[in-house]
Every structure is written in C-alpha cells, then in structure tokens.
Automatic annotation (TrEMBL):
Family under the similarity heading: Belongs to the Gfa family.
Name of protein: CENP-V/GFA domain-containing protein
Alphabetical list of Pfam families matching this protein: GFA (PF04828)
Organism: Marinomonas pollencensis
Highest rank taxon of the organism: Bacteria
Entry GO MF terms: carbon-sulfur lyase activity; metal ion binding
Length: 135
C-alpha cells in the first residue's frame, strides 16, 4: 500500500515528498554511517520502488559516493543534513529517518554492522533519561 511521507533538512531548504512504502528500517553501526552521522549509528529507512519528489532545494543538494563501496549520501549543501538518496540502479530510496516530518508507524527492525560499532556504543539502556537538556 502506497503511503505519502514528507520531510526536510534542518534549515528547511530541501523539502521532499516520498510516495511508496518503507519495507526495512535498520540502525546501521558501520564506520561510514557513524562518520556521516557523528553518532553511534544512522537510522535508515528503505523504500523499494518509491517515488521521490523534491518540492524545493533540489539545486542545493550535494551527493557523496565513497570510492570502491556502495556507500553514498545526499545532503543539503546549506546545513549539511542527510536527506534521501535515490539509488536508481537498485530501484530503492534510502531515507534517513530523522529527516521525516511525518509520523512513522514502522519501528527499527535490526541493528546492522554491529561488529564495527564504536567501543563506546554500549550500555545506553542504563543511562538517565531527560525530557530536555539537564541542568
């Protein structure tokens, strides 16, 4: 069943609409995802056969492909936020979950490439939780 999702980058320059269905939702801990996100993992949604429509900011998008790998990222050249990447050769759109402006019913299905996660990426369940920045 086709769904419509919208999203944007941090500064709002790049806005998109995705028509399709997310089939997979993975938290990727590979070193490339850690470096591109600056965090423990990337939260990526996979939408095979989806249609990606840029509503604004398409002229401000930059694309990076890591040599000799399948790793690639599309990002806003104004604010640097990761936005969807359409991989036409594989017929799939990869969407960073954090750039969605619409609700998502799908929960992460797996941690992937956990063998290369950062040595500091453990024990998060035991950390205190705050609704905002602690004082």
């Amino acid at each position: 069943m086709n769904q419509t999702h919208t999203g944007s980058c941090l500064c709002g320059t790049a806005k998109f609409e995705l028509i399709g269905e997310f089939k997979k939702f993975f938290l990727c801990h590979c070193s490339r995802c850690r470096k591109s996100s600056g965090s423990a993992h990337c939260a990526n949604l996979f939408a095979p056969g989806a249609e990606l429509i840029w509503l604004s900011g398409a002229d401000k998008l930059s694309f990076y492909k890591h040599q000799e790998t399948n790793f690639s990222r599309t990002f806003c050249s104004v604010c640097g936020s990761n936005v969807p990447t359409e991989i036409k050769a594989r017929g799939i759109v990869v969407v960073p979950a954090g750039c969605l402006d619409t609700s998502l019913e799908l929960s992460p299905q797996a941690h992937v490439f956990s063998g290369s996660k950062g040595n500091w990426d453990d024990g998060f369940a035991d950390l205190p939780v705050f609704d905002g920045m602690p004082s």
